[in-house]
Amino acid sequence: MSKQRLRLYGDQLPAKALFGPLSKTNRVIYVVEGAAVVRGAGVTVSLTGNCAWQGSSELTVTAGPAGARLLRWELSAKNALISEGADVKSVLKLDAEPRIEPGVAYLMRCDRVDFPPGGVAYTHTHKGSGIRCLQSGRIRIITQGHDFWVDRDGAWFETGVDPVFAETREDGPSHFIRVMILPRALSGKSSITYVKAEDFDKPKTQKYQVFVDEPIELTDA
User: Is residue 221 in some structural domain?
Assistant: First the structure.
């Protein structure tokens, strides 16, 4: 099987715009603002702000009367393709290779992680790779010898196996949306493991809201 790439796109749809068709592939669509209707093979789903959907069929997206701003993750072995629609603006925000092991069944999880002002995610790993996109506040990421701050609408990739420490600014709350490719055995279960023994029993201030936790089939599509 060809190597899989996980890509995050940002899509801006004007009022009632028709976007697509988007080709068949494993994907998650999250509505940041506005509303949208996803239509595919036997599927019609209405989404509003802070909602997500996962599927793999060819589909179209129709924006609501106030338009829609989307985050769209796609897992594919094909080259990146910027889809088009009438007055739709799409940008490829990040392209990365997730950790995929032969013989393992996988799922796509989309969730929201909220931090209070000055919140900390102690040094940790995950049992799968993923792309995050910050939607409010500011977050500092320390991993693989890099130390950087992410601003609103910025995206970053975490391998899962490389330890990460994160902290947010103290002048307000922060939250990000992420999609991870996880072993299917983790369905409904946390993917996080804390690295340092002294952090195991410390209070954890981040809160999670899971939107999607669905099994996928990996193909060369």
Answer: no
Q: How far apart are CA 148 and CA 140, in angstroms?
A: 6
Task: Specify whether 147 is located in the same domain as 186.
Answer: yes
**Cβ(210)–Cβ(111) below 8 Å:** yes
Report pLDDT digits (tens) over 53-75.
Answer: 999 999 999 999 999 999 999 99
pLDDT number for residue 209:
98
Name the pTM for this structure: 0.95
* E-strand stretches of the chain: 5-13, 18-22, 26-40, 43-48, 51-55, 59-76, 89-96, 106-115, 120-126, 129-136, 139-143, 146-150, 155-158, 164-168, 174-183, 192-194, 207-216
Q: Are residues 110 and 212 in the same domain?
A: yes
Q: How many residues does the chain have?
A: 221
